[in-house]
Amino acid sequence: MGYRTKVNDIIQNVGEVIVGKKEVVEKVLICLLSEGNALLEDVPGVGKTMLIKALAKSLGCDFSRIQFTPDLLPSDITGVNILNPKTGEFEFKFGPIMSNIILADEINRTSPKTQSSLLEAMEEKQVTVDNKTYKLQEPFIVLATQNPIEYEGTFPLLEAQLDRFMMKISIGYPNEDEEIMILRRFKNKNPLFELKEVVKREEILKMQREVKEVYIDDKIERYIVSLVSRTRNREEIIIGASPRASIHLLKASQAKAYINDRDYVTPDDVKQVFIEVISHRIAIKPEIKLRGYSEVKILGEILSEVKVPGAKLYV
């Protein structure tokens, strides 16, 4: 746990730009530390892109922004073979995917074919072009954004694509005091331009290794499986969460414990990441939605229904 203090450094640094959203920053960090990917879904203007840029500037890593548009091609992301006129041979020119932190901005504005070009990179940390595989740099994380309100000219992510994201995160509006603070910070300058690097790439890799060492008891593992299994046998849900969801929930719980300065996972760690890890992986019946139910509400009921393991094991 030697690099745990670096987490606070990152949160405080990002907080110089993003006001009052410590929990949101923590959730993005959970994805980074557990080698997952995050989908930030919210209305325009609440700071999705700004948060990702602030995080990227805080980390000593390469950063690429991909603006997703209807005419974007898979090769615009992964790269393409180009003929070198001097040698007469094809050389591979890497696309923006060959970076550590990828901002996939407005990912739902491009075609499913182009969206799918990210799948191999997100899951296997590699890309294959013309039958040749290229390993991506580490650490590697895709942070995608999308607007849940505007549907014209968009291509909703398919279930298989959504399942690759460890978390779906909403930023939300600031309260009035926070918004006043935002106005004052941005009145004369953009604080993002003055942000400094606080963590080096090698330190992030060491933090990721430390997260994997966080202890998780057998009973906590069974608790995770019980929560995920419950999504598959409720009558309101037509598509339940997959085993990949259980894996992501376990890893996210380890990262949450790490951020909370513990070397073991508690049931509360699981609870605090459960909705963000699972909500985008389930589908509920249309008639249930008409009655005012949502994925978040149903998952909240599941949390209250599943028995929590005995606390005496985790004190």
Automatic annotation (TrEMBL):
Keywords of this entry: ATP-binding, Nucleotide-binding
A single GO molecular function term of this UniProt record: ATP binding
Gene3D superfamilies, per the entry: Magnesium chelatase subunit I, C-Terminal domain (1.10.8.80), P-loop containing nucleotide triphosphate hydrolases (3.40.50.300)
Pfam families xref list: AAA_3, AAA_lid_2
Keyword Lyase assigned: no
Annotated signal peptide: none
Keyword Mitochondrion: no
Residue span, ChlI/MoxR AAA lid domain: 230-289
InterPro entries listed in its UniProt record: ATPase_AAA-3, CbbQ/NirQ/NorQ/GpvN, ChlI/MoxR_AAA_lid, P-loop_NTPase
Domain annotation ATPase AAA-3: ranges: 38-167
Recorded family membership: Belongs to the MoxR family.
Stated name of the protein: MoxR-like ATPase
Biological source species: Caloramator proteoclasticus DSM 10124
